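User: Hello, beginner here. Can you help me understand these amino acid letters and fold codes? It all follows right here:
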Amino acid sequence: MRKTLFKWILLLLLAAYVAGMSIWASGEAERHVCRGIEIEIKASRGSADQLAAKGLETELRKFPQKIVGARVNSINTLAIERYLSKFNNFETVRCLMTPDNILKVVATPLIPEIRVFDSRGGSYYVNKDGKRIDALAKFFVDVPIVQGDFSKSFPETKLLPMVRFLTTDPDLKVLTASVKVDGPDNILLIPRIGGHVVNFGDTTRLAEKRDALLTAYKSILPRRGWDTYDTISVKFRDQIVCTRRDRSRPQGYAADAEEVDLEEATLSGLDANEE
């Protein structure tokens, strides 16, 4: 009997302790308020992470309910997560209150590989899996620019292997300002050096075309003049086809290959013989 009575007394004391702690915690929560917001971006993108953090902080100021200065027990972290999830720039967004009454937001961004400007006036990012990401100024990321008219038969994802090649090659990375698609077989590099474009053709034989282009830059243009041609085409195997500039056309005009007398304009990609 004594052992049973002792057990019941312990249970009653434990229940009273739990109830007391719950009341105390509720009272503490009532008098504690959110002291601030801390944002952590789970990536290593330098200034892009800082910009994303500022963008999230700006959006949290627009949240329908007060956050900073509000009672801790009135802040619905799940509702804040749902609110921030309207931006498809992030893979995950998690919110929690820290012991020192700070709302901590941990966001994992989707990492874009290219920025697309399509011919219909749209603009968006594309990540490695081909997912489109809204191009919002508050979440700007400096990635290669691709322009063109894309479709189901030739989506922008077809360019990802080529863009990766351009950005990992030390010479082409410095050279290329953007990529313009005039069709699956007429992919143009827009160089940082103004006055001409480079026709890479399709997305095959990239290393071979890179070597041909560097041959043109090292052995042909210095001799013939950097403003002699408006288009340098390396789309043909073992050839560099340069189109003479038509002074009546604006600089950067890319002539179609059919407009060129190929026999007269063809230059060897190996020995850089001039026409």
User: Anything to note?
Assistant: The first strand starts at residue 36 and ends at 41. Residues 5 and 206 are 85 Å apart (CA to CA). The helical segments are 2-31, 47-61, 77-84, 160-168, 170-175, 206-224, 262-265.
